[in-house]
## 1
Amino acid sequence: MRQEVVARRKWVTEQQFLNLLGASTLIPGPTSTELAIYLGYARAGRLGLVLAGGLFILPAMLLVLACAWAYVRYGTSPQVASVLYGIKPVIIAVIVQAIYGLLRTAVKHWRLGVVVLLAIALYLLGFNPLIPLFGLAFAVMVVENRARLGPRRGSPFAGHAVLAAPVVPIDPGALVPAAAGGVSLAVLFLTFLKIGATLYGSGYVLLAFLRDDFVRRLGWLTDRQLLDAIAVGQFTPGPVFTTATFIGYLTGGWTGAIVATAGIFLPSFVFVAIVYPLVPRLRASPWTAAALDGANAAALGLMAAVAWQLAVTSIVDPLTGILAVAAAVLLIRCQVNSAWLVLGGAAAGFAAKLAGG
């Protein structure tokens, strides 16, 4: 994006680009998508906001939709099963690489390290991901700004922009129950709307929310299907959030895919439209900065917890163990493009199937 809109087209200056990138990390949702939306807004107002965001999402959505159709039609064939068998441990390695890369940035001091461990513990104890995400972010905000708190200062939030949890239902199914024996499109939309409106950090934090909602709470997916969905979202170009398209298709067909995609991306458009005029103030607020640090550390903990749980279902024998370790080493030490490793894992899984007869 920087090469295209700063260097080549000169639509924004370097500093404007950095300001918009910083603002993208301060609101829930996929950073890359929100940066595209911000740049569209800066270039052409509200129409640019809609066009830039929509056209950034559309190609990835169509690719994932095609993969979802093929998965439903051919996913149970031995050939496809062997390919997915080899891809899954590589995806675990990709998540491990993301955690490793973010650790140095997210854990700036020992208190944030404690936040990571607390987030892991809370998720493994069965708490909804929103509790460690927003609860720990709020705790860090208060602790880091405790010197600003005092009886004569009034409200600690006066005159400061702060992060606040958007008002969305924690359990959309409580409002619109799922249809008996099937999937409610309203629940599907509200669940992805909640995720899009509350998720901070890397796109891989999406794993924690998806597993909590679709595997544990609703029971619409298995761990295997969830990991397959993440694999497709990782392998195809575009934001990892298009995993929602895949899950929507699995649970509700073509309509479900559109509903899920709209639900998870809609909050990004709304947040950008609201926050764009406040970008300078958001970047300057110590309250917002501290809350973001806490949210990022908690998100890292959620990523680690879910990576562990999914590893149990995807690393099932010596070959998948070797694939996971080798991919992690190549990603972290040699910075090999993950798409090549996904292809390599697919080839290894297919070869193992042929060798085993």
## 2
Amino acid sequence: MPQVDVARYLGTWYEIASYPQSFQKGCTATTATYSLRDDGELDVLNRCRKPDINGEEDSAHGHAWIVDKRSNAKLEVSFFWPFHGAYWIIDLGKNYEYAVVGHPSRDYLWILSRKPKLDPALYEQILERLEKHGDDRKRLVVTPQRP
């Protein structure tokens, strides 16, 4: 993305779909909440329900920092120091109603929404854009969300 307004990006995002990852195994009803820290970095709180949508909540706390101050679209995220990974905002709704987060390796991909459900037509448009840029839509798995 050419420019991300960090203040508008803050808050809770619902995971609509993602490339499956071992660290999210068994997760449903997944959310990510971002808040600004006093030092200008971001707190990250990921939550999900395991083993199903009515299961117990599991959470992970981390932090993120912006590595491309010109666009604010490229971040690094760490849940277990010293390990961290790239977090690139590669697509974003005009009103910040959805976001797509990827990684330069294309091994990670998340489609996020401000609501637990995303309009099917909008979801299809996102998938088409991802495909045009070389991402594999067949790898995406839809994340069950509570209504």
## 3
Amino acid sequence: MKVSVFENKEEGSKDLALLLVNKIQEVLLKKSNCVISLATGSSPIILYKELIKILKFKRVSFKNIIIFNLDEFIGVDPNSINSYNYYINNHLLNHINISNENINLLSGNKKNIIEYCNSIETKIKKYGGIDIQILGIGRNGHIGFNEPGSKKNSLTRKVKISRDSISVLSKDFKNANNIPDEAITLGINTILSAKNVYLMAWGLNKAEIIKEALEGSIGVACPASFLQLHNDVEFYLDKNASSKLS
């Protein structure tokens, strides 16, 4: 595992954006597409802004980029400002040259959720697997909506959102009654199958869980700890998030 520490999230996001563009081009030299799974939340917002700048400046094409997103709420309209479909479109996809046929955003409104989740796994495998996985981390150690208790062999599935996560989400939903308690998420095994994983964490409120994820025991109590088993993962941290690492 590699850990990169920056003065602040702006510096870290810029560095990661440059790395990702180079990694995308490296992947495309070896095969016909590059499959990227995108995280949501507050951590990647600056990263996506920087990616848009670089892509426009360098005129990098997203013609052969395949996009998946990491998670989505169940029962939330995809056009709602609170949906992760809206988030990914608003913060990145609406601003780059990518074909609609290459965008695979999760839907939380399918009748047969199990069948749908299985189809996502099949589609990822059809494309040759995830090349680049972008992650944030929850204060309880969740990655995607793989909450504490999620197993290493878990795949894309419907999950219950923890009380801790619902508490964090409350700042984004104006009406507390509208906060969803279920989601679809790529599984721990799905994430670990990605060839390259990049996790961002900014701020003092992430310091404790970053220490647990990087230096603690591997297990279901902290789903992000399973990343210790991956052979190509890099943590992008600011000084505050890294402050409790030994």
